[in-house]
Amino acid sequence: MTYIIAGATGTTGRAIATELARTNKVHLIGRDESALKELADNLNSSYSLIDIENPIPVKEFQQTVEIDEIKGLVNCIGSIYLRPLHGSTIEDFNSVVNTNLFSSFYLLSAFARRMKNGSAVFFSSVAATKGLSNHELISAAKAGIEGMARSAAASYAKDNLRVNVIAPSIMDTNMSAKILSSETAVEMSKSMHPIPKIGDISDILPIVTWLLSSESKWITGQTIHVDGGFSTVKPR
Asked: Which of 1, 22, 149, 209 has the smallest number of CB atoms closer than 10 Å to its CB?
């Protein structure tokens, strides 16, 4: 069985691809060919390039992935954008929506019909459901992912294709490096969470592998929050 990992060279994508490649075939998708090739060589996997800013038509992109049966898709393509509406431009909005929401639409529309009895996993954010200042653009894009996933779960249930979303809080990844650039920022971020820590890949990886496995065969259309209780708990 083959699993597709998009955004495979980022912190999260690389960890997921590495874990899955231990016992399965993986196909990597990303925009940095040199980094993709290096990872693909290490994992003995195939890969294809994607440019979300200038994507080729879906039918053409489908032909770059020569896999008859896809058992799972994980989209790790994303961004973090923290700025209020009045400090954002239309170009900023389009970029955030394109990177996060459009990439999820593009990938699922490309592969859904080849994923019978499979599982698709997307990433949202705690900001999609909890109002956080300066998160308007990223909140809109991530909330769109959750809505799209629920509807897709209904559309493809007849094929037993499960579609779910993981919504973490801030994670220690390459995307959050600027936000967590100082010890003060790290401690402030920790203090916002009922369980005071920064998320890391060890918090996410078990959820991803579970959602891709047959152990979650009756789970679809769900958003699973992995956020230290930030979205729902106020202990003090």
From this structure: 22
CATH number, domain at 71? 3.40.50.720
Query: Residues 140-182: pLDDT tens digits?
Result: 999 999 999 999 999 999 999 999 999 999 999 888 888 888 8
Residue 235 lies in a domain: no
The one-character DSSP state at 193 is: S
Q: Which residues pair with 163 in a beta bridge?
A: 120
Nearest to 5 by CA among 24, 23, 28: 28
CB count within 10 Å of CB 36 equals 21
- Contact yes or no for 124/145 (Cβ under 8 A): yes
Domain with 96, as residue range(s), is 2-226
Please state the domain count of the chain.
Answer: 1
- β-partners of residue 48 are 29
Is the whole model's pTM more than 0.90, yes or no? yes
Helix (H, G, I), strand (E, B) or coil at 6: strand
For the chain, the distance separating the N- and C-terminal CA atoms, rounded to the nearest angstrom, is 47
